[in-house]
Amino acid sequence: MTSAAKSERKSGQIAMRTPPVVSPQEWEAAHEQLLVKEKAQTRARDALAAERRRMPWMAVEKNYAFEGPDGKVSLLDLFDGRRQLIVYRAFFEPGVFGWPDHACRGCSMVADQVAHLAHLNARDTTLVFVSRAPQADIARLKARMGWEIPWFTLTDSFDADFGVDEWHGHNVFIRDGDRVFRTYFINNRGDEQMGGTWNYLDITPLGRQEVWEDSPEGYPQTPAYKWWNWHDSYAADPAADKKWAEVSEAGEAAFREASTKQ
Question: Alpha helices, DSSP H only, in 83-237?
């Protein structure tokens, strides 16, 4: 097959024009060339996250109320004792396509992608979903779809006040004692990146809380890799695992050495 060859496979009536097929050496060269741009994008993403951690905070002065599985709760209650809170507005309510059997298809895709919450919780961060559906319907939907995300019912103007009354989006909050502050908001295509632990942490005011990050002075930070754990093995104030520390240090050293040769 030449570089100008077209794939024999067709989509409809239009032949699919594929990239050239090359030797392993040519493929490696092309990959290395692309990797330069990918690394630049990674560094730019890290710099943007560092700037995000320096965004000003907005005090939340209004008392918002939600309904949960055990009754009425406040915005402060949604933190579940943790310092950071991410609230995703999912559309599941009368008038939404799919009701009452399903939530919005897009919001459901977001829910399907959410990583195990234990990893976020280990970084002092809580993720919740909110909708206008009653709790009985939310419980039914979660059971059907296998979702374990904490999911609360909106009862007031929270969605309108935080830009999610007509479209989905993530609002991020931090608390200082009983005071709550809004720190970030992302919606539309920005929501596409949500679901993974790292992307969630990157939109929080404290970030991943690892020592390599460019964060303001005094922000909590621990060595990278060492806080990672199996999702069923996190514990409050755990002692460092000596064996895992050795493994992670060796892996990081090898990674750094390889990076300097590229």
Answer: 105-113, 117-121, 135-145, 158-161, 197-202
* 65: amino acid identity, one letter: A
Say if 187 falls within a structural domain: yes
Q: Residue 49: CB partners within 8 Å, gap ≥ 6?
A: 202, 203, 207, 213
Provide the pLDDT confidence category of residue 1 given band limits of 50, 70 and 90.
Answer: very low
pTM score of the predicted model: 0.88
For 15-66, the pLDDT digits (tens) are 899 999 999 999 999 999 999 999 999 999 999 999 999 999 999 999 999 9
Overall domain count for the chain: 2
For residue 194, the one-letter residue type is M
pLDDT at 205: 98
- Residue 134 and residue 81 share a domain: yes
Residues 111, 151 share a domain: yes
- Measured distance CA(119)–CA(136) in Å, rounded: 28
Q: Are residues 94 and 145 in the same domain?
A: yes
> Tell me, what DSSP letter sits at residue 35?
H
For residue 210, the 8-state DSSP code is: B
Q: Is residue 233 part of a domain?
A: yes
Instruction: Give residue 243's domain range.
Output: 222-252
The answer to whether the beta carbons of residues 87 and 171 sit under 8 Å apart is: yes
How many C-beta atoms surround the C-beta of residue 150 within 10 A? 16
